[in-house]
Amino acid sequence: MDTMRDRFISTTTRLLDEDARLALVLAEISRDGFRQAERAHPDRVINVGIREQLMIGVGGGLALTGLRPIVHTFASFLVERPFEQVKLDFGHQGVGGVLVSAGASYDWPSGGFTHMAPGDVALMDTLDGWTVHVPGHPDEAERLLRDAAHGKGDGDGDDRVYVRLSEQSNDRARPVDGARFLTVREGRDGVVIAVGPMLDGVIAATEGMDVTVLYAATVRPFDAAAVHRAAGRCRAADVVLVEPYLAGTSTAAANDALVDLPHRVLGLGVARRELRRYGRIDEHLRAHGLEPAGLRERIVRFLSR
């Protein structure tokens, strides 16, 4: 199976052929994959070199001309390093675009901490009007990317979308629609929300437990109605969030969804502490307690209190 990043390259190459309004802005990363697109559309495939702030600025400038920019690099260089440009050149100027990341939390461990961005979604959450997709399978990534590329006119320019790709993937795709959380399993002892590539681990971790499992491939906007509905059917409104980025990123959104119910929320995800050994993805999962055994231990402990 191809990776989400592979699918992003092939899908975006086709989208550039199909829609003359689309433009792609790169900062060296993934450039080799877009050689064909660069030859076919030299005026709409722009590589700025290792200048990430410029990359965002160029994307915002293209949006001001009426184009729909797709801007791509590693999450740490797409969200963290040029954050001021994301805030101003897209948000403040009221234009839309699609930011597509790779790498993210710990997907390239040998790249070290400079290439890790577990706080990217939390950082984007400080900005108004961004949709955030966290697909769990390449097929989901393709669907969400296609929807994002078309954009939505809303009177404030096209919408702004962040698509967070991962090297991790669930075994199969789910019928995501870019809005709703999906019900994977129903139970009465609590609700576990699995985000993106965390779903398979959550299913394994909750095997035999009487819990509802919701699947979220789009986390902003947060599907408060689905969480409220699922929690309201349980014996107690206890909710566990399992996110592949900074632990607790969505706990405020879950609390807001349950404001009229007595409830408890546990946020599981990447810890704030820095792991200073490269290791492998599976070792990072275990270190953060995000493998099935670690998840089950913490979910059982929380729900049994």
From TrEMBL:
Which parts of the sequence belong to the Transketolase-like pyrimidine-binding domain?
Answer: 2-173
Which ranges form a coiled coil? none
Q: Where are the transmembrane segments?
A: none
Put simply, this protein is called Transketolase
